[in-house]
Predict the 3D structure of the following.
Amino acid sequence: MVLHDERLADSIAALRDDRLSPTAYVDELRERTGRVEPQIHAFVSEDGRWERVLADAAALEARFPNPADRPPLYGVPIGVKDIFHVDGLPTRAGSTLPPAVLTEQQGEAVQRMQAAGALVIGKTVTTEFAYFEPGPTRNPHNTAHTPGGSSSGSAAAVAAGLCPFAFGSQTVGSVIRPAAFCGVVGFKPTFDRIPPSGMIQFSESVDHVGLFTQDTEGAELAAACLCDDWRHLPSQREKPVLGVPAGPYLDQVSAEGRRGFETHLDALRDAGFELVRVPTLEDIEEINERHERLNAAELAIAHEAWYDTFAEEYSETTRSLIEEGQAVPTKEIARGRQGRIELRERLEETMVDAGIDLWVAPSAPGAAPAGIETTGDPAMNLPWTHSGLPTIALPGTTTDDGLPLGVQCVAPFGADERLLDWSHELAAALQ
């Protein structure tokens, strides 16, 4: 194991009240990265990384000498998945295409973190163009296992304590699944709640900007800086009623994953949460097919110009999906896009009818698979991504081999604030 406690909320408090300076924090992470990074390969290599970050940290200290004036994320070092553009850094997206072709202007999400005082410590490894072709990153719990994908480097970096926050993205399960595999918190907000500008697009209709932290408190603090129109609501006193989606969707979980999930449900019940098993997603195979076809088509659209010139630079895995997408009829794309709205409305109607506040489900079919040749199955995340509902991954128990198993909680569209407020008590119950 190469794990390390690096809670974002604790780091924020220490930086803001001068118990820790940004330059001292960067020095700590530089030392730890030097020891750990050769084992997990979470970051894209960068010449002069630490000189750059230390200079940025020193400039921040000079700009905000008075603690009262400091922005909310003052001095927080962050990792940025290498499909997001960052001014001054190349974008490679886990591919062999020329960075000069891929790199564009920095987007809103990175800009908001920097405006809040965060320091970009580096780009994190992603699978090729955020699809399935894996990079070199390994799971900090056991380096013989995958960290998940496509936000592999971000999840591993946070789990290993190399940064307290990292950006991810999710088009099927690329935040929630690696969060589960690496035993950290992953948050995928309501669709489009964090603007996706400045990010290499996979599927316009379902791409979500997401984030990783080790703590739900930190996730909430970061989300308040990132999400459009964030509302600071009073803390909710009543526990949410939790709906367990019974039926073929849950049948996609492995035997080991199901045992772990029932243990998680017992822990939530013991903590006073009401659980209701609700039949839903009976048509999960149809939903899966619709989502996968929509993704393929929109990936082909997003990569049309690059693919015409650089087709041979794409991996066989990604090339196959693009060529499948090129054959998807326009009418099928339109049906796929409309299906997202219909699924969202159906899930929310079911919640109202059953009297539940949140869905709760396994974050993945099981623990992280052995090897790094594949990144695991995103099936448990797909319907929540397709419908655009806000979702948080919470660490739970571990397998007999010490690999994490997680729980995902899903709220109605736009209820990100309630979800994150409830997540603190839910996370405590699962530990």
About this structure: The two ends are 19 Å apart (CA to CA). The chain has a mean pLDDT of 98. Residues 286-331 form one domain. The chain is about 40% helix and 15% strand.
